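Appendix B: complex inputs.
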Amino acid sequence: MSTAELDTINPADALRMLRTMRVARQMSQRIAKLYPTDVMETPVHLCIGQEAVSAGLCCHLTDADQMLLGHRTHAPALAKGLPLRKLMAELYGRTTGCSHARGGSMHVFDPEHGLPGSSAIVGGSIAVGVGAALSSKLSGSDFISVSYFGDAATNAGVFHESMNFAALKQLPVLFLCENNGLSNVMPVAEHAAYEIAGVASQFMPVFRADGTDALSVYREAGKAVRQVRETRAPVFLECTTKRWMKHQGHERDDLEINPIDPVTDCPIARLERFMIGASLITPREILALAKEIEAEIDDAIEFAERSPYPQPEFVEA
Amino acid sequence: MSTAELDTINPADALRMLRTMRVARQMSQRIAKLYPTDVMETPVHLCIGQEAVSAGLCCHLTDADQMLLGHRTHAPALAKGLPLRKLMAELYGRTTGCSHARGGSMHVFDPEHGLPGSSAIVGGSIAVGVGAALSSKLSGSDFISVSYFGDAATNAGVFHESMNFAALKQLPVLFLCENNGLSNVMPVAEHAAYEIAGVASQFMPVFRADGTDALSVYREAGKAVRQVRETRAPVFLECTTKRWMKHQGHERDDLEINPIDPVTDCPIARLERFMIGASLITPREILALAKEIEAEIDDAIEFAERSPYPQPEFVEA
Amino acid sequence: MPWSRFDSNYRAPAGERDLAFVDAIREATDQAMCLDPRVFAMGLDADDKFGVFGSMRDMTHPERILGTPISENANTGVALGAALTGMRPILINLRNDFLLVAMDQIVNYVAKWQSMFDGQCAVPLVMRSVIGRGWGCGAQHSQSLQGLFAQIPGLKVVMPATPYDAKGLLLSAIKDDSPVMMFEHRWLYKNTGPVPEEMYTIPLGQGQRLHEGSSLTVVATSLAAIHTLTACEQRGLDVDLIDPRTIKPLDMDLILDSVSKTGRLLVVDYDFPFGGVAAEITSRVCEQAFDRLREPPQRIGFPEANMPASGPLERAYYPTPDTIGERIERWIGVEVCA
Amino acid sequence: MPWSRFDSNYRAPAGERDLAFVDAIREATDQAMCLDPRVFAMGLDADDKFGVFGSMRDMTHPERILGTPISENANTGVALGAALTGMRPILINLRNDFLLVAMDQIVNYVAKWQSMFDGQCAVPLVMRSVIGRGWGCGAQHSQSLQGLFAQIPGLKVVMPATPYDAKGLLLSAIKDDSPVMMFEHRWLYKNTGPVPEEMYTIPLGQGQRLHEGSSLTVVATSLAAIHTLTACEQRGLDVDLIDPRTIKPLDMDLILDSVSKTGRLLVVDYDFPFGGVAAEITSRVCEQAFDRLREPPQRIGFPEANMPASGPLERAYYPTPDTIGERIERWIGVEVCA
Ligand SMILES: Cc1ncc(C[n+]2csc(CCOP(=O)(O)OP(=O)(O)O)c2C)c(N)n1
Ligand SMILES: Cc1ncc(C[n+]2csc(CCOP(=O)(O)OP(=O)(O)O)c2C)c(N)n1
Ligand SMILES: [Mg+2]
Ligand SMILES: [Mg+2]
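Resulting structure:
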């Protein structure tokens, strides 16, 4: 990354991305620390290492734009605007959670910020995202929709069907594939006999970004989102990235096929190096930002802890 | 088609194809004639105009090779070896039918000739065909499998999933798409936003043939089948063709988007012209062949008519 | 398939204006689409010249009718996404058998979305589907799958038997803010009966009495209700015939009220015999009105077998007004009702 | 999800050799694969280091264990195609919720194939799937779907409750020439009990009495059977506890025999409450043993709601040995059984 990148990003967005990524990272690290204590009785799929994808993308989205998520929800939901408190309270199973304690980690909801829900059955939410785009078209609205999914979700037939539907009906939807190269412990080469972008290119224009580099995502997502808005037709964006943690839970990944270099693979370290080099931020400011975010997380945890559990008599919602 | 084609086809195969196509055509015409009398209480999907595809393909298959069909069964099943009598009796709902009167027109069965069944739910039998190829691989057998389907079956997610499965596991299966440009009354451009061969090429080698020209199918299917046998890996063959009849039933099609030229679009007329030109057959011999086939059809109808209906007490098979 | 040859012997009492079942559905859909621009329809062949057996032809707003590819699973997800973001989709499947292709979306997504988010969102999604039968369609095109979907919390299930109910229930379904599935038996499409021209709704969960009697309560759904009615009328059976109209929620008050009177229960539901709607109704009556029952309850449904194709087998497979009537006569004898 | 923390309080009577439920499944699979080269296994994660919660680890023939992509529908079709052409597949789904993605193949294809061709072919296909529960997995990962599949003609459904049954039923399923679905409750995996080392089969359709009593017949499946057994033992309940083991076909003789003795029926089936296995058993008993029943039958299942995520809601949602025991005590009182 050189300072030439400066031309392509506005400094406010760089800061916004850094903040977004740090919120997701620090939040995830805190979850990982707390998880063994069982205060969160829900399966967590952490996004550590993958934060740049949603952070870069969401710089280009408005609250009106809809985003449909799968099971790995935290970073993209926070990037889209879900308040920390609401996410934390949901993980804690409290009524103040974004889904009122009914959803858990895989089911986040915040329509004010364009999050109509998420799903833990891999693949299907791609189609739901296309439906949001259909709404936009039929109601003559401006918003666009994002179907946000992992590499292995492209195995599912609904991926093919959804691309076909969106392309046939010319719907304003961005297919965002966050390709971390893994489906649980299975490498992408064992679950996909195809190039994801190659298949997608049979249906719509395709962009690709380096998902460990926030600036690359920012740039390509910018183009992709602009194209969806302008053409009101589907566009595909694949961001390759790396998953640092195990598929689920609080432990570091230990797959031999998934080596992580905490310096070059870290989207936050990379963006910080760039921003420091470009004089957009100082190490001291970063420290202050980190602290500020820690305080927000403290607040979210405190909020969650003092929020009530749901009453058992409301089991039938 | 010139006599240069002679280099590419052995005369016996040409004759075999002609016979196969004529059997399917004459049988279908007879069904169309009888259908309004309600002797066949089952929805028929006739193959008139499309006979070259299965006739050309089946020249290259053995009885051991498996073929999984959809709802449009007659021509491919006959080409693969299903006896006329068994098909006719099935259409007549008699116990001597290939499925003992339980299947009807869309469900044909003849394991002796590599027909383990067919399905009326569009798409799914593609996966079943892949499963037969898996058997071949796991049991160390030589046979190959054919998943035989229409253009609109490629809409279904199971198409994508099946190609991925076959390619990942390197299974000896031929994906045979009989593209008649129609899904009921919907033209292919309205149901598929993609090029079928383009999508398939992301998973496996692709061949294409003119499905109204038996020699073209013969040639390309020959290459495709050989490649499956040699590489023991999936191959795709798309044959474009034309449907002369309505999607279902005994009437000629009348869609404006589906004009038929009975001379150039007729695979039988084309092959006969070629064979006559190449002195492989005389018009007189063709007439004799047609008569011979008529007699076989008479026999099949007579067989069906004098076969018993199933007894109601066997409703629970 | 010459469906036209299956005509019904049901004629509803004459009313202001008679309409066929299929036209009642068409009218409800058209009126709802005219009233509310958020209402739209989608499904395979929904926009073609056959218009879903006529139920979608000549609509006022063709621009809000979308044909779809053969991708029932994605289609359902798309409809859900549209419902979540302000639209009110009517998703149509020509055969309820195709719903199985979309089962993940229907059961894991549509049925659960509201409860996963504690009802913070509306899911105004109507799923129409048609039950086929006969003419050698075979096992994959002749199922009646209401029993499967009734099991799933989060789905309402309606099954109109008359043109009046078809219009009123469909409008209720469209008006509802939660997912509603409507199963329409193809053999009812040509039946006619009185249908008001104006829009009206029938509360979901309100059954009706189609025939009055005191010796036996028959609870019957959809075509089975019409077949039972025919049997009652042709044979003069002393039967209290309850058509729940809505399978879920179920009008247990009406059923229990009738059983209290007759002391006997027969459930006729055209579906596979294991579990399902008939088993649920039978169980609830036994649980809640055990002391009122004077004899063991009975059920009529399909045999424990998939649908065969051949005519004689088909005719043996399906219950008919005659087999229902004979079963009832064997049970309660022939008495002319009051 | 720390499943390991859910340990069961079930201990089977001591035998020659104790084995965990999961190891009984593993042993059956391994023995079948060693015995018959046509037997192979496939499924998402079937070949990975976790080996389907341990049930597929360290197998003798890893070359016949295929991992698959997330394409449950095609996977099922592939397994069917293999079964039709000489192989004997065991198709595994880590969660029975994923079966819904494959519903078209299971219901329209697998269940119907033999009957569409009049039984001219074998379909020796076993579909194992695991029922999850708890730890905030939420509505999409906690279902028990035996009731859906039991409705469909052409599918056999088994639900082992003990390690002994897990091995014997799985071997029966593998030996069977028709499709068999086996639902395994994740909470049973660590339970231990006597399991013979040699191969043995349990006839499909043969239930067993897990506890002897005379005041109440409880028919309970899978984990519900174990929970009821616990309740009986802890509270000394006078209960005749029948575990049908096979949901379809159902051992009605054993159930009716017990009801004849006790005159009372409770069905405990962990599934949605509308129209599933519990409704079928209740209905059949009412139809076939009406005169033996002295009181209305009762059912225990899930509430009419999708599974919530939060701990307190989850704990309220699921029946437990205590809630079952209390319900039984309220009904028949506490009597020490003979
Ligand atoms: C239909 C379905 N099959 C299987 C699973 C189990 N499962 C949950 S997450 C996952 C891996 C998904 O990988 P990917 O889509 O790449 O997302 P990632 O976890 O890498 O973010 C699997 C197999 C599921 N939830 N749904
Ligand atoms: C899953 C499913 N959806 C819809 C249908 C209804 N249907 C039957 S055949 C057909 C068209 C199939 O077109 P294609 O695959 O091109 O085959 P063709 O009829 O042209 O040979 C449709 C939509 C079906 N049988 N199955
Ligand atoms: Mg991944
Ligand atoms: Mg076609």
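The interface with chain B takes residues 37-38, 40, 64, 66, 68-69, 71, 73-87, 104-105, 108-109, 113-121 of chain D (CB under 8 Å).
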